Amino acid sequence: MSDNVLKLIVAIGRLSAQQKQNNNLFPQMNQSESGVFLAMLQIASEQPDTELFSLGELNSYLDYTRPNLSQTINKLEDKNYVERITLKDDRRVTYIRLTDEGKKMLSEKYDSISDRMNKIKKEFGEEDIDKLIDLLTRFIDAYEKNE
Fold first, then answer.
1. Model confidence, pTM
2. CA angle 90, 91, 95 (to 5 degrees)
């Protein structure tokens, strides 16, 4: 094993350990519930005016089984973070919408993560952050391709 490969494995291990330590961005949620919130955050970042999330759209980011996604949504409803919505013009599709409590919690977490990333960005500088994003994206693509 080359020295660079070993260093890469160690670096990924450190990042993974750090991620696990801070993994549960939403301590009041399990991993599946957190996944739904992160999928909503991703969709909202791509489509800023989105307030309704279809189960199919969410699952395209999550790849949960249909029963698992439904059970996860039920738990989030019980915690008053989301609500199910059906539209009058198409009752076949169920949408999920964040409640005020869910929006507040997501906003607080997003602000916390954003503050941390902005501090890191200042340490690296704009150019290095852009390079890092490009390299990480390429690395993840290659890693997924070679699974």
1. 0.70
2. 95
> Which residues make beta-bridge pairs with 86?
94
- Sheet of 90-98, strand order: 53-54, 90-98, 82-87
39-to-11, 20, 35, 82, 120 alpha-carbon distances in Å: 26, 18, 6, 13, 23
- Reduced 3-state DSSP string for 22-91: CCCCCCCCCHHHHHHHHHHHHHHHHCCCCCCEEHHHHHHHHCCCHHHHHHHHHHHHHCCCEEEEEECCEE
Backbone angles phi, psi at 87, to 5 degrees: -90, 145
Q: What is the pLDDT, as a whole number, of residue 110?
A: 78
Distance CA 47, CA 24 (A): 25
Query: Model confidence over 43-101: pLDDT tens digits?
Result: 888 888 888 998 888 988 888 888 999 999 999 999 999 999 988 887 888 899 999 99
Domain ranges of the chain: 3-145
**CATH architecture designation of domain 3-145:** Orthogonal Bundle (1.10)
Six-digit token pair at 40? Answer: 């909503």
